[in-house]
């Protein structure tokens, strides 16, 4: 009888049977801690998942590295089915997902904890109700709103924690949470946090406990201010270069938030996903392993166990965690109106809504506002369907960006209306006095807009539109919001004062005709463009003004992408542990395995958006994919961290890498398969260099063959590839891939104006490169400074001193580079 092993192809040589068994039926760390509450998570994890002997690890070191770099050929269907049995999914994942999953599991042969979670929790189902693609304040406001809804525990992990408006949002949410727990006479809520802020103590204790004095210096609350919240914080770093770079949060083991941003203020476009379902338990174990230290006090949800499975997940306005988002609120108001009209049908004939549900939303908002939205306008300038298909692998069924979160222009106009009416009031946080800002946020302020219609705070957009159901708050929680202040735009909000789709301003260089309604509309569009610029200036060291003249393009910007209801989809964790020793050898981790496998198994397209792109493995993998005829699209930030990335062994700057990639591809005449775009902000027409710190992109996202997503905290640079602890999730869903493609098109102008030529050079319409434009702008500023009239020395000295102090306040502590 022939041994079955003899008939296996090279592609069927995958993870060991022991690893597959651990993934199928192995122990779970949180279950062990429930039975052994006095054990610390770090010791428990090492006891449960022991690594192989040194000799075996040395051999597997070379074998796994070879397999990750070179691959093992195409696996058979039987082998893929075997890999599928190692996950816990309600439906079989796609072949592409399983191929990537197989390479991820290879890394567990050498270290069962390589994925920084219990192996049994590596592959689970999940749903994605919300994505936020916006500036940091929008994301941190969602963090704060979720913290307010916590009943048992809040777990937060971030790389860089800096005194800022973002930190203030978290601190004020904890204060308000403590107040609410006291009012309901509930048990203390546990709050635990991990961050990385270098200290000499980490030389002998990587997980250094932070004292109240430590975290109060970062503007987190004094324990005396939050008597109903127990706080325990760990400062984690693995010397020398093993940075803790993961960014996520978990609320009551029900919700996981995974994001690209640190808790600080930066002028970055960032990405956050709100996940629910079984996959949250994998995040929970990741936090426990990363926290490492004894839990004091113990986490209540460990004793209670994970929430029971549900048959139906809630989306949009049905989801209490999303209740403060405008589109969800408008939908809820529309349903209330439908119920009201149904009750009135007994006494009068029903009124037909020509636009269906969206028209009802519009009329509900009219009742609230006393006005009507404008007429429909021509479509804004955007990438053609062919461009979308080339970049993201979309099909002709791809919805236009304007339909992404509404599906109907009338609903879009209704959303513009609710946003415009909630814009009155509130000045930027960075311009508020302490008495105005109340530490940067106001909680549970009464709605006084009826008495003072011109002083409606930004948060009042979270108040339900007028309906009979408005007297009841089904969530039992008022979202965190801004203080009520004099009128003015505010950074980081959900676009409260954007132009409607019917504003008669079209074209990148277009303009409205002077006089009459057109001139008034142009003035209004200009005002709203300034509002968008102010929003995107959140955290900027110097403000940038809008250079785009198309209000229709600008009106697409909406931070919140509410995904349509969907069944749970296969997901998998692909994270990495920190590696402190210098060198570029630590690649046998799920994160790197997933990225390399995604490039190797791609057949149609690869899309990557990342701030830095210079790690040699991913550069080579993308070039090899392009040589095979796979379209590789890169959205990268021009000049991001060039000073750090140009140091020896860091991989080089983004521009240097792009030039070399095109050089390699031109030699084999495959340069047409590489498309590099420099990031362009939604209110801009050209890339702005990182050095001026006005419009940067800090998103970390990858999609392959319009089927599989890899998203999380990992950059495409040497630090993230070889050293930092990262957290990423692998998602298998064509629908969510299409959703993300639409989101990326509406939140930036990169796809419209950021394309480089086949040498890697970006040129403006007049032929000038970014460097030439930047040099001219710098020279013009220098000339303007010299021509400016001189003021008296004392006043000038005082002004310079204030400017220097403000600049120093923006600098990183200890002269470190900005957090990635």
From TrEMBL:
Cite the record's Low complexity compositional bias ranges: 375-386, 511-523
A Pfam family of this chain: PLDc_2
Alphabetical list of Gene3D superfamilies matching this protein: Endonuclease Chain A (3.30.870.10)
Where is the sequence biased in composition, kind Polar residues?
Answer: 392-405
Instruction: Write down the species.
Output: Mixia osmundae (strain CBS 9802 / IAM 14324 / JCM 22182 / KY 12970)
The PLD phosphodiesterase domain sits at: 240-267, 698-720
- Bias category Basic and acidic residues: which stretches? 1-10, 338-348, 769-782
InterPro entries with a match to the protein in the record:
PLD-like_dom, PLipase_D/transphosphatidylase
Its encoding gene is what? Answer: Mo03749
Any GO BP annotation: cardiolipin biosynthetic process
This chain belongs to which protein, by name?
PLD phosphodiesterase domain-containing protein
- Top-level taxon in the UniProt lineage: Eukaryota
| Gene Ontology MF term list | phosphatidyltransferase activity
Name the segments for region: Disordered.
1-21, 338-357, 366-523, 769-820
